[in-house]
Design goal:
This protein has two domains: 221 residues, HUPs (Rossmann fold); 82 residues, Orthogonal Bundle (Tyrosyl-Transfer RNA Synthetase). It is mostly helical. Helix 10 runs antiparallel to helix 13. The strands form two sheets. It has a three-stranded parallel beta sheet. Strands 4-5 form a two-stranded parallel ribbon. The chain is globular. It binds tryptophan. The site of tryptophan has 13 residues, from strand 1, helix 8 and strand 4.
């Protein structure tokens, strides 16, 4: 029996990098797991997104993106973190045994601290307790459902290690087996998707190609992809070219090989390759865009799906909480 679990923090609209690096591999991984849990880590996002309108929109956007990327809520458990109060109950209990020093070492907090120090301002400026205790809430997300495998990008491995350490500490201290130690599983594609400027695709670099968008939005993003200055008839170096890499992440092997051949032979220019990429996006994602737009204008449907998902998983969460309460003496 393997239980796979992963969450996405709704801090923006989903882009191709999220799809290829997180959503698609998680859904593929779920095919060989006995159970899968996928959720919107909305309370995690609340540390960053403090605009209620945007916050709501992005939470829906992430939910619709999962659904339109192939998640079947009849097969995978699918819910919003904030609909599972047991997560917060567990998180509170976990704080009582987690050493403060472990939080000091967590990389997101350390990065914020380093930034303040470099700017020569007080250590604590703009650092809320949600950021500081982020790894504890994440541990609760994972431990509450006895997850065995957590598919994540490289930047999240430390959080899974902290989760294991916290679980082990509770188990050892209270001489219990109440919590299951999860393992991370690295989603290798996470690094492979470049953005329009050639750096890793990331909202914070402002270099993303949106996942579900209009043709016009796709076009604007795609035509801003940087290329070298070779002319159409020049033989091109495709390795390391962002247009090619983005194409390859979504196309079949045959399509990819053909694009490589045509670029290397000087039959296609970079502008042509961008046109091919646009066509590919329309082919692969075009139909899903309509469904995505439908969900985004009928968010009640999303609420219903998410609430049904929460109702289905809460009994599991309750069992874990009961075990932990029993172990600690509540
Ligand atoms: N911290 C993760 C990220 O920023 C999101 C997340 C929250 C998560 N809780 C989780 C991922 C639990 C996996 C399991 O990407």
């Amino acid at each position: 029996m393997t239980r796979v679990l992963t969450g996405i923090k709704p801090t923006g609209n989903i882009h191709l990098g999220n799809y290829v690096g997180a959503i698609r591999p998680a859904l593929r991984r779920a095919e060989t797991a006995s159970e899968s849990f996928f959720f919107m880590a909305d309370i995690h996002a609340l540390n960053q997104v403090q605009d209620p309108e945007l916050y709501r929109k992005w939470t829906y956007s992430v939910a619709a993106s999962w659904l339109c990327s192939g998640l079947d809520p009849e097969v995978s458990h699918f819910y919003r973190q904030s609909d599972i109060p047991e997560v917060f109950e567990l998180a509170t209990i976990l704080t009582t045994i987690t050493p403060k020093g472990w939080m000091n070492k967590a990389h997101a907090y350390k990065a914020a601290l380093d930034k303040n120090r470099e700017a020569g301002i007080d250590d604590d400026v703009d650092i809320n307790m949600g950021l500081y205790t982020y790894p504890i809430l994440m541990a609760a997300d994972i431990l509450i459902f006895d997850a065995d495998i957590v598919p994540v990008g490289k930047d999240q491995i430390q959080h899974i290690e902290i989760t294991r350490d916290i679980a082990e500490r509770i188990n050892n201290f209270y001489k219990t087996e109440a919590l299951i130690l999860p393992e991370h599983e690295l989603q290798a594609a996470a690094q492979a998707m470049p953005g329009t400027d050639g750096r890793k695709m990331s909202k914070s670099y402002d270099n993303v190609v949106p996942l579900f968008a209009s043709k016009k939005e796709w076009k604007t993003a795609i035509y801003s992809i940087v290329t070298d200055s070779s002319e159409r008839h020049d033989p091109k170096t495709v390795d390391g070219a962002a247009v090619y890499d983005i194409y390859a992440a979504l196309a079949t092997e045959e399509q990819t090989a053909e694009l490589r051949r045509a670029l290397e032979a000087g039959e296609l220019g970079w502008g042509d390759a961008k046109g091919e990429l646009l066509k590919l996006l329309e082919d692969v994602l075009g139909e899903s865009v309509e469904r995505y737009n439908h969900y985004m204008t009928n968010t009640k449907e999303l609420d219903e799906i998410l609430q049904a998902g929460a109702a289905k998983v809460r009994p599991y969460a309750r069992e874990t909480i009961d075990r932990v309460r029993e172990a600690v003496g509540i």
